[in-house]
TrEMBL record:
InterPro entries: 2C_system_His_kinase, CheY-like_superfamily, HATPase_C_sf, HATPase_dom, His_kinase_dom, HisK_dim/P_dom, HisK_dim/P_sf, PAS. Pfam families: HATPase_c, HisKA, PAS-like, Response_reg. It comes from Lojkania enalia. Residues 182-191, 205-215, 1056-1075 have a biased composition (Polar residues). The modification 4-aspartylphosphate is found at residue 1167. Residues 1-28, 161-240, 1055-1075 are annotated as: Disordered. Residues 1110-1238 form the Response regulatory domain. Keywords: Phosphoprotein. GO terms for molecular function: phosphorelay sensor kinase activity. CDD domains: HisKA (cd00082), PAS (cd00130), REC_hyHK_CKI1_RcsC-like (cd17546). This is Aerobic respiration control sensor protein arcB. It comes from the Eukaryota. Residues 781-1048 form the Histidine kinase domain. Residues 16-28, 218-231 have a biased composition (Basic and acidic residues).
């Protein structure tokens, strides 16, 4: 309720509208609006009266029930602060005892506070006031619901308790009762009349905030008769009781004063005032008596100067604190008496005050007073007030002095100590330190009337030393460091004194101070301060000669040795009291502390003096070097081939060397901002501006190539043809101490010929890349065109051989048939030989182009070598070669089974070595070949007695550091192939492993080959992180071996690991048939074909095994198409043909993949190079049709192509091919691949 802002009533709003006709009315309206914004709770909280609000229409309280207490919905701060009063009002503590205001109980108060008037329907409180708990309570009702109750604390004058103010304050007693005066004077009469007037009105309500909840004391009597209240008076909480003290003296000037007179009053009354200008005391005026009583009762020093003679009258405090020994003679006299020394200083003040009638006030005024046997330096803060004495003219002056001597002099001495400390902090040497001591004291003229400073030094080192090295006085001298107030050549200040034997000056006193090590006081009265030494001294301050002096032995706080003696005269106008001694002590401590700090500093300086000298020498040398270097830099700048520049942050050229102007062509006195941009080519101008903006923004250095246009500079190439003018601009921002850019400096270098060379290199690189591309394209075309007819030849040869082999002829034709079969086999061998040469050329091309990469996968290396051995099983059987496989025990010793390596490269190298071994062993008398495999954790020894590895072309590195190799143990897989062939001589071994190189010219004539096999094997071994080598003896045999890097890896999931036992070394060729053959190996078709080169498989193809296959051949070469279709048909397959991709898509729409009732189709054999629509586009279209749901299921597609590069194979597989068969191939092999793809897709 109280927190909301009430709305203006219509009447008030109308009234405000009428009053807003003038600026004043507008201000009134604003004030009323601001007043209306106040909340009721805010107003009541600011009220000092205890106030509460009741809700008369509450749904939760029934005030008709006498048991319920009052439950206010709001209590203001004045009521909440007094718990006892709050409890008595709400009924928490009910004491129904008789109250001082009558018999009002809590029940009566509750009934009044919650009741309503019976005379109207306003629901207002009745009666309007109620006296409860000695408080007058008033009530009012707002909107017939909200009852506001406020309490007012009041005091009835008839109930004021008796007693004086010493018995307690009104707050402590609760009420105050005025004590009747036994003697009624004018004041008593006035108070009585005031009380009579106050009694005629109602008791006043206290306006101050209630300060205590203490229950007031009940008055002893109460009268309801107003006629008897003539002696009563109303009072408020700030009133006091005025009384007539029993021992007080109202007027000590009357003949018979009452009360107790102080000793000073008695003395003052005893003065013969008739002998003074004031006259007898009985003749004093009433006004003067009142002022005299006021002065005498003042607890502070006070005095009266009366009449033109300024006769003096003062109180007891003035006597004790100001007059001193001048009392009692000072009483009743003027400035012509004991205070005559002050008259010259105060006479102008008295005269000015008497003339103007204005009071005068002085602060810390220096007044010399002779009150304790000597002329004393004092300071007073005082005032002179003119007194009229009831007349219209000034009769005298009231003086209220307060002595500030202690505070003023203490401040002055502290300033001296502070100034001394500041000066000592500036000392740079011991001599300077003593000078600073005197400089710090010279400003205080009063407390340092004169001063003398002697330092102690060794007698034989007076010029260099400035302090004593020990505490003894033998061989010590005192050297004068300076003086204050003592003329040069004065007997008191000899320049040098022998501390042990001399009797001049103050040496005897110095010796005594050195013995005690404490400040020593000298007195003129006892002769310790010789008066003959004081003659001729120029006394500072007041000019009075000193009677005392003090010697301070100066020694550091951290040492016992005395370094100097400081003699200071004592202020002749101040006693050497405790305050003065405290100043001396602080001065001694200041000197000791500062000297200790300085000596520590000097010691550090002394220790580092040699270092400082060395540093100074080094700085001099560095300065010379810097100057020399600066001179060199200037010469280098002038002779430098670089153009150097310095720009302002606004882009104005500040400095540049001669080379810059020659290169850029900019004018020397160019004042324009960014004038250099005019000399930059249009293409480079935005680049230059961007460089500048970035350096101004981030303050980082920049380098950029820029093209310059300068007609005077035309660079030329080797053929004297003009070329573009380019420079390399390197700029560095210079940053100031404030973090702002100061300048941009840098240099430009002519790179025109470098840019020309770069352009030439780029052109030649593009030409080389184009040549390489054409070479690869030629190799690809050659390989493609060679493989296509070879595939048809191989298939026809197989067809001829199979037909003649399985057809029955007469015995007379047997010889002819055998010759034909042998001819067919020779044709197949020639095809495979030609295919091997093409594959070797492709491999060499990959190696030259760095396109051959190592792809590690988890494999079992023993199984890889077993596959290679199994591939040669028919050939070694046909040639009657003892062929054995010998795994080493190291696999079991190291626990190696699965490793990460590239199986295709391992297989390729092994097949090449076995092929060579068969080729050179087949005609030997003893035909044995052994294949060994082992593993080791250390790299094999490269140089041994019986075997030597071929050095690598580069350094051997760890190729297994990549993430694809895993983090298993690094291993080395070793493979060796031993044969009993013809062997090699030393000269023949040196020619091995080179491109197109064979042991001798007869090797090709006798054994054939291209000379690429060992070269490729060496390259592959080094690419796999290993090496290849040979050990051979002519006529005995050869051993070719290699090692490669691998990493141990865990067996893949779902793999069955079978423990193997190493084969016996004497295993015959028959045992080779037990090796498993895995047809899903990654061995390239070329390698597998090469393995069967000498012994084609002549087992017949059973048509019943492939009668379920329906094959679509997509081939643009009609010869290859007819030959392949014929052979597949003979194998029992149903064959369809298409000349390109369009016909393939058309035929596919007639098959069961598109219509369940259509033609059956098992797989598509697709060539890649075809007109109109090639194989990659066609297979992509098929996969798109599958995604759109136009085909049922996935259509198996195998690429049959002569494009056999790895990237070409990957592209085919990425386009959607399920497998790739490389030309040339055999039909049997093709059928196996078809069946493998169908089985894989079926799974």
């Amino acid at each position: 309720m109280a927190g909301s802002t009430p709305e203006l009533s219509p009447r008030l709003a109308s009234s405000l509208k009428e009053r807003t006709k003038s600026p004043k009315d507008h201000l009134d309206q604003q004030s009323l609006l601001e007043l209306d914004s106040l909340s009721l709770r805010e107003i009541l909280d600011q009220d000092s009266r205890p106030t509460l609000i009741l809700d008369l229409d509450s749904d939760y309280l029934d005030y008709g029930d006498d048991k319920d207490g009052i439950k206010p919905i709001f209590c203001n701060a004045a009521l909440r602060l007094h718990d006892r009063l709050l409890d008595s009002v709400t009924g928490s503590i009910v004491e129904d005892t008789v109250q001082s205001s009558g018999t009002t109980t809590y029940g009566d108060f509750r009934s009044w506070a919650t009741g309503v008037s019976k005379f109207d329907d306003s629901k207002d409180v009745f009666p309007l006031t109620l006296l409860y708990r000695d408080m007058l309570w008033t009530g009012s009702t707002i909107r017939q619901r909200w009852r506001i109750i406020s309490g007012n604390q009041c005091y009835n004058v008839t109930h004021l308790p008796t007693g004086t103010l010493s018995k307690g304050s009104p707050d402590e007693q609760g009420t105050v009762k005025r004590q009747k005066s036994t003697k009624a004077g004018p004041t008593s009469t006035s108070l009585r009349r005031l009380g009579e007037k106050a009694a005629d009105v109602a008791p006043t309500i206290e306006s101050s905030t209630l300060v205590s909840s203490t229950k007031p004391k009940a008055p002893k009597e109460h009268s309801s008769k107003s006629g008897d209240n003539s002696h009563e008076t109303s009072s408020s909480g700030v009133s006091v009781t005025l009384s007539s003290p029993e021992f007080g003296c109202p007027d000590w000037t009357i003949a018979e004063p009452k009360g107790v007179l102080s000793e000073h009053m008695v003395f003052t009354r005893s003065v013969d005032w008739s002998a003074t200008p004031l006259g007898p005391m009985v003749d004093w005026s009433v006004e003067f008596r009142e002022v005299a009583n006021l002065v005498m009762r003042n607890p502070h020093p006070a005095a009266l100067f009366w009449g033109e003679e300024l006769t003096m009258f003062y109180n007891e405090a003035y006597k004790n604190e100001v007059a001193g020994n001048k009392h009692p003679g000072l009483m009743g006299t003027g400035f012509s008496g004991p205070f005559s020394e002050l008259w010259d200083g105060v006479a102008p003040i008295f005269r000015e005050c008497a003339r103007t009638g204005k009071s005068v006030r002085k602060e810390n005024d220096p007044l010399p007073i002779h009150r304790y046997g000597y002329l004393e330096e004092t300071f007073f803060s005082w005032s002179f007030v003119p007194v009229y004495g009831g007349t219209d003219r000034i009769l005298g002056f009231y003086n209220g002095p307060f002595e500030t001597t202690y505070q003023t002099i203490s401040t002055r001495r502290l300033q001296t100590l502070r100034h001394l400390g500041e000066r000592l902090a500036e000392a740079r040497s011991v001599k300077h330190f003593w000078a600073c001591v005197l400089e710090g004291l010279v400003e205080n003229h009063n407390d340092v009337p004169f001063a003398l400073l002697y330092s102690i030094t060794d007698s034989d080192d007076a010029d260099t030393a400035s302090h004593s090295s020990d505490s003894t006085i033998s061989l010590k001298s005192c050297v004068l460091e300076g003086s204050i107030g003592i003329p040069d050549g004065h007997p008191a200040s000899p320049p040098r004194l022998d501390l042990k034997r001399s009797k001049e000056g103050f040496i005897p006193a110095f010796r005594e101070a050195m013995r005690t090590r404490e400040p020593t006081t000298l007195h003129a009265r006892d002769g310790s301060l010789p008066e003959d030494l004081l003659e001729g001294i120029e006394w500072r301050g007041f000019g009075d000669p000193c009677k005392e002096a003090i010697i301070i032995p100066v020694r550091p706080t951290n040492g016992e040795n005395i370094f100097a003696f400081l003699l200071i005269g004592i202020n002749p106008r101040r006693a050497y009291d405790e305050d003065y001694k405290a100043f001396t002590t602080m001065l001694n401590r200041q000197l000791a502390t500062s000297l200790a700090s300085f000596l520590l500093f000097e010691d550090e300086v002394r220790k580092s003096r040699s270092a400082a000298e060395a540093a100074a020498l080094q700085r001099e040398q560095l300065s010379q070097q810097l100057e020399l270097q600066a001179s060199r830099m200037r010469r280098m700048t002038e002779f430098s081939p670089l153009g150097m520049y310095l720009f302002s942050p606004d882009g104005v050229l500040l400095e540049a060397n001669e080379r810059y102007y020659e290169m850029v062509g900019q004018e020397r006195d160019d004042p324009r901002e960014f004038g250099f941009l005019d000399h930059i080519a249009d293409e480079s101008r935005p680049v230059a501006k961007a460089i500048w903006d970035s350096m101004v923004k981030d303050f980082k250095a920049r380098s950029e190539e820029l093209q310059i246009k300068n007609p005077k500079v035309v660079p030329r190439d080797l053929e004297d043809e003009p070329i573009e003018y380019w420079v390399l601009a390197s700029s560095q921002p210079e940053i100031g101490m404030d973090g702002k850019l100061r300048s941009i400096m840098g240099s430009i270098a002519d790179i025109s010929h470098i840019k020309w060379v770069q352009g030439l290199q780029e052109r030649r690189l593009r030409e080389a890349e184009e040549t390489k591309r054409r070479q690869n394209e030629f190799i690809d075309i050659t390989s493609h065109e060679m493989r296509n007819p070879l595939s048809a030849i191989l298939i026809c040869a197989d067809d001829i051989r199979d037909s003649l082999t399985h057809h029955k002829f007469s015995d007379s034709d047997a010889k002819v048939i055998d010759d034909c079969i042998e001819a067919a086999n020779n044709i197949a061998l020639c095809v495979q030989h030609q295919k091997a040469i093409v594959d070797d050329i492709l491999t060499v091309s990959k190696l030259d182009s760095n396109l051959l990469l190592i792809a590690p996968v988890p494999v079992q290396p023993v199984n890889v070598i077993q596959r290679a051995v199994s591939m040669f099983k028919p050939e070694v059987q046909a040639k009657d070669i003892d062929f054995t496989f010998c795994p080493h025990d190291s696999f079991q010793e190291l626990g190696v089974d699965w490793v990460n390596l590239d199986p295709s490269r391992l297989l390729q190298i092994t097949v090449n070595l076995i092929t060579n071994a068969i080729k050179f062993t087949q005609n030997s008398e003893i035909r044995k070949i052994a294949v060994h495999i082992g593993v080791s954790a250390e790299q094999p020894e490269l140089h041994s007695k019986n075997f030597e590895y071929v050095p690598t072309r580069g350094s051997l590195i760890n190729i297994t550091a990549g993430n694809e190799w895993g983090d298993g143990q690094l291993l080395y897989i070793r493979v060796k192939v031993e044969d009993t062939g013809c062997g090699l001589t030393l000269q023949e071994k040196q020619k091995l492993f080179e491109r197109f190189a064979q042991a001798s010219p007869r090797t090709h004539a006798q054994y054939g080959g291209s000379g690429l096999g060992l070269f490729i094997s060496r390259q592959l071994a080094e690419l796999h992180g290993g090496q290849i080598g040979v050990s051979s003896e002519a006529g005995v045999g050869s051993t070719f071996g290699f090692f490669i890097q691998a990493r141990r890896v865990a067996a893949p999931r779902g793999t069955l690991t079978v423990s193997r036992q190493p084969s016996d070394e004497n295993t015959s060729s028959a045992s080779a048939s037990t090796f498993p053959q895995n047809r899903t190996t990654a061995l390239p078709i070329a390698l597998s074909g090469l393995a069967n080169l000498s012994a084609p498989n002549i087992s017949p193809i059973n048509p019943e095994n492939y009668s379920h296959l329906h094959i679509l051949i997509v081939e643009d070469n009609l010869v290859n198409q007819r030959v392949l279709a014929k052979q597949l048909t003979k194998a029992g397959c149903s064959v369809y043909t298409a000349n390109n991709g369009f016909y393939c898509i058309s035929h596919l729409s007639t098959t069961t993949f598109h219509d369940p009732s259509g033609t059956p189709l098992s797989i598509i054999l697709m060539d890649l190079e075809m007109p109109e629509m090639d194989g990659l586009t066609c297979v992509g279209k098929i996969r798109e049709m599958e995604q759109k749901g136009e085909l049922n299921g996935r259509v198996p597609v195998i690429a049959v192509t002569a494009n056999v590069r790895d990237e070409q194979v990957k592209m085919a597989l990425g386009s959607g091919m399920d497998d790739v068969v490389r030309k040339p191939f055999q039909v049997r092999e093709l059928l196996e691949r078809i069946q493998s793809v169908l089985d894989r897709l079926r799974v």
